Give the backbone structure.
Amino acid sequence: MIEALNISVLRSRQRLLHHVDFSVNPGEIVMLLGPNGAGKTTLLRSLSGQIVPDQGEILVNGQPIQLIPLSQLSLRRAVVSQSVHMSFPFSTLEVVLMGIQLQNQSRKSTMSMKDQRILATKALIDMQVEHLSDRMFLELSGGEQQRVHIARALVQLWTGCQEESQFLFLDEPTSALDLKYQVYVLRYLRELASAGIGICCVIHDLQLAALYSDRLVIMKHGSIAAEGPSEQLINASLLKDIYEVSSHILQHPVTHKPLAVVGD
Amino acid sequence: MSTTVLSRFNPYQVWMILLTLLLITFVAAIAQGAYSVSWGQLLSWSFLEDWTSPSQDGLILWHIRVPRVLLAALVGAGLAMSGAALQGLFRNPLADPGLIGISGGAALAVGITIVFLPWSTGYFGLYALSLSAFVGGITTCVVIFKVGRIGATTSVGHLILAGVAINALAMAGVGLMTFLSNDQQMRTLNFWMLGSFGGALWPAVLVVATISIPAGILLWRQSEALNRLLLGENEARFLGTDTEVLKTRVIILSALLVGAAVAVSGIIGFVGLVVPHLIRLLWRADHRMLIPASALLGASLMVLADTLARTLVIPSEMPVGIVTSLVGGPFFLWLLMQPHSGMKYD
């Protein structure tokens, strides 16, 4: 389990996070929602160890995050950031290969270059970008790049620590994807979760969040405003509160998940 | 498809091509010079020479030509490797030991030693100058890093701007040293500023080899971490790479390589900048290949440049730094102007 215990983050006298308690359990998908600037990305960055909270503590499988060396932390959690800047011409396959955790001590022997390539190709196939593996990464479209970064995170998890719970953090992983791949990627995340990986994902699409999450966490002004399964959580007055938008809530005809329709 | 010139060969073939190139330049460089030897003679010597009573030709080759060629190769390899690693570290294709001030700092320290501590060069010769070049190079690195540090992390943009400013300062310092020096010191200084392998002997080869070879191997071992760093510092940390440790290592190793090079040959520009570009353009950007391939190509090109410097104006000799800049500068400009050069750095 990854837990944030009463964390606060201050930046130039502004409170980005204010006494937040939050956790991600192995095998569940938590989706973080909220208006721009609500602190979603800050919370994700704190959980992933990128920033150190000014107050409170982050525990990874019960251990304080700052006590875990980076090379060990990377065996337990992978991160897919909103945007990644790449400076030199690397092929797609080479970018995915960077995710491989060669320092993992629990493996009996070091991976051969061939095994690394097989694993990276499998991740590319899983994200349906294997046809791009020899192309230069910088020449790919935004959506393709996003899927390659997810493939890199997959390779990281596969070569990471299998004995402990693993976690995956994604910051708007579907923002550049077309409808087909939005659904494809979120379905894939569901499968990952059922294999035991704890997933925390920042997302803006309420409908997709309701359909593919186990739990929604809605943030506003650096605090958690509401949390729970989508069926219990999403209602017109909450959306009015959070987003200042009028809406009607319908029900998905098959899954019975709540669907918010915007407008008076 | 990735269509670089060398990508259609498998890696072993590329290594063979680069090694063959180095070997050819070696043999050619040993044969050519003010005292020239035919290739046939050269080959027969290397197999038939009686080492207990060498001929005059053999003496010239063994004591003057061979160490000079080896030194050029070592310096070329060192400069190219440090260029490749620094470009990766700064995530900037302009990073070059000359451009960010490491060479300048090293040259200033050498200048100060020549002008103010002339007795030291008398006692320790090359070692004193090598030592001051390292001290100058590493001091520059430390200053660049102090300036580039904001809070707990190091900003690459700041680093590179700090380097440019420090380079300018160091060059002004070298100018001041020239002003303060007497005639003989000025000649030594000029020699350093323009870069030359003239006067290279076996001790110099030994000094550079014992520093550059271990430093180069250690630098190569940072390849995977340098690859990850190209995704950005945060991403590299997410993948388990301690970027602060990496930066310190790369800077120290580069300063060692550049310090050794500057100490024995002065400031030789453009090799550290152009060679890694060429490898990326012709082959690939993966540091695991880029660093050793840059070493081989850098060695070949430096040997070639030094051979030109030795032979173009016989019986006199040009500073090799002028050759590398005269050839490297226009070539680099041409490279930048190619619309499909594969240099996509945004």
